[in-house]
Every structure is written in C-alpha cells, then in structure tokens.
Amino acid sequence: MKNDILIRNAQLLNTPGKKMSIAITQGKIAVIAEKIDGQAEVEIDAKGMLVTESFVNAHLHLCKVYTLQMMDEAALKDYHSDGMGKAMTAIELAAQVKEKYHHSWILPNVRKALAQAVLYGCTHVRAFADVDSKARLEGVQALIQARDEFTGIVDIQVVAFAQDGIIREPGAKELMHQAMELGADVVGGIPWIEYTEADIREHVCIIFDLAVEFNKDVSMLVDDAGDAGLRTLETMAVETIRRGWQGRALAHHARAMALYPTPYFQKISALLRQAQMGVVSDPHTGPLHARVRELLANGNLVCLGQDDISDAYYPFGRNNMLEVAFLCSHLLWFTSRQDIHTLYDMVTVNAARCMGLKDFQIKVGAPANLVVLSQPDVVEALRFHEAPLYTVSHGKLVDAEKYHHIAIG
User: Fold this and answer.
1) Residue of 187, 56, 86, 176 lying closest to 128 (CA atoms)
2) pTM recorded for the entire structure
3) What are the structural domains of the chain?
C-alpha cells in the first residue's frame, strides 16, 4: 500500500542520536523505522529536526479573543493587581463587552485565533464560550460553527461556560441547558464566583447534573483569586468522585493553591489523584498560579493553557503553545533540561490527557497528529518558539499558506 505521507530523517524524542522515518496511511501512523522503503503522495525531509506530537491547548476563552480593543483596561488592572484580591471585580468589569455579543463578529475573531493555532501546530483546543444573560448563546453558536468549519484541522471541544455564575446569574441554568442541547461538548463552571458556600455547592451540583444528563466531561475554573480560604477545587474533586466522573473532570487555574498551607495542599493533591483530575495552569495570565512543580512531584496530571488572547484579562497571546511553555519556563523557574522536557509534555501529551484524547502519541496505530519543528531538540524549540515547518493534522498535511491569510486578516 502506498503511504499518504512519508517523513524521513526525523529526530524523535525517544530515539536520541537516530534519524527515523514515519509513514502515515489513512490518518494513522503506519510505520516508524530507521528506513522505510517506497514512496508516498507527500514526502518530507525533516533534515534531522525534531518531530513530535502536535500541540494541544486545554484552556482558551475563544469567544473573547480580540475583544480588548472594545473596552477599557479596568478589568485587566484589577485581575493583575497584587495578590489578585480584585479578581471577582475584574470578571464583573470584563462582562461589559458581552452586552455587544453577536456571533456575526465573534466568528471572524474565532477563525483568526484558530488559524493562528494551525500555523503554530496546535491541533486540539478546549474552547470556552460564555453563557449568561448578556452573552446569551452567541458565543456558543459561533464556536460550534467554527468547530464544524475546522473539522479535521483543529479539533475544538466547545465548553458551555457559566462565566458569571449560575445561582447569582438569572436565567443561567436554563441557558446552560440550551447550550448543551445546541451541541456543546463540555460543561463549564466557575463555582468560586458565587456569593455563599451553599451557592457554590449548588453551582457544582448543577454542572454535574448537566454532565450526567448529556454524558459530557466537565471543566471548571476554580479558586481563581487571591483568597487562601477558597475551597472550590476540593468541592469539585469530591463531587467528581461522588458522581463517578473520574477522569472526566478538569480543573483550571486553582490560583489560590499558591496560598494554601502545605498540609492542606498535600490533602488536595491526594484528592485530585483519587478523582483522576488534571489541573490546567496559566501562570502567564495572572500573578498567582497553581503549585505546578509540587503537583508534578506528587504524581498529579498538570498541563498548560493559553487562557486568553487579547481580551480583558491578557493583552497578548497567539495560540502558540511553545510560546506559552517558554513564558512558563521563566515564571515557574523550569530551566533545567528535564524541566524543559516537562514543559514540552505539558503542551503536548499531558494536555492531550487532560482533554481526554486517546492514543495521542507518536506510535504505530495512533492518529497522525504531529509537527516537524525548525530545531533539533526541545531546549532549542522553546528558545525560539517558532512555528513548525510542517504540521500533520488527522493524517493530512496542513496547508499553512491558506491559514496564514486567515490569521492576518
């Protein structure tokens, strides 16, 4: 059988010093060997450069991309204030832009951000769309349309996200149900935004009720403020176990973890393992972040996310997960060679595990999602954080030129 794609002279992570070839047929990796005879429809000479799994972004507020220009910087200043004590105020200020929400202008922004993902070798994104009385279902509709448009290029998991709360936000519960009926892939919550402990517990229960009803995974932004007393990560983990949703729930941010007393942190770490819950950290978008190194040392699953692209919370971002890893190397002081390899895993295979992706690795029989980089090793890849030379998504070579025009449009 003639191969669809044949990559020669590839440096793989697990075969240092050897140049390997990879044959791709019918969307899957068919052969990995030092030498593969025959030809293919598409042949790529990697010239000794690094070839790895493609990049994965487990956290992106995709409905908000490029909205910073539509508002002032009050929310940005509060969210980035020392100690993150004004995080709730920042969210309330950021909500103002949603009064203007309409899928007609959200969708072009979404397309641009996803085109950048393509250019930077990111083939899978967990994308949040706000659902509340202001945003209504405009963001969800735009993201679902984009998901369909980018099928086979970027896999998008659309998260129906109750950004402004459920109990405190009139109509949010009903809108969340409608969003799931429309076809959202993940149920998203933010329990810490509620006013009381009772409301927090009810918020978490409602999210899991929806997850069970629609048989969907859960993502929640937990403890995203400078308050050592926040315990929504614990509440989420306990409910995950109670509902039998182990391996299907993902925690995002958990910034208050930075302030937890060590004994409580150790208890939470163990609880996360029992719940089989990963944590997505975004250290570049806020002054506090989860205790990434300690979580990893304890055997917890951790990955990195882009979080924001030019919105009320962060002025930069371009869906370049190598850039995210580079920034986090400085913020987390992950600078040894092993640290840098760990960062790389957190934007590839670990992020894929957090999103529930199966067989996301370079092995025979796995779906062919990979990148050919412009550097020979992981350290140099992070140093330059350049776009890949080639991206293979779902077994097909991506037409980078096509998406370049969308990305700059």
Assistant:
1) 187
2) 0.96
3) 3-53+360-400 (2.30.40.10), 55-354 (3.20.20.140)
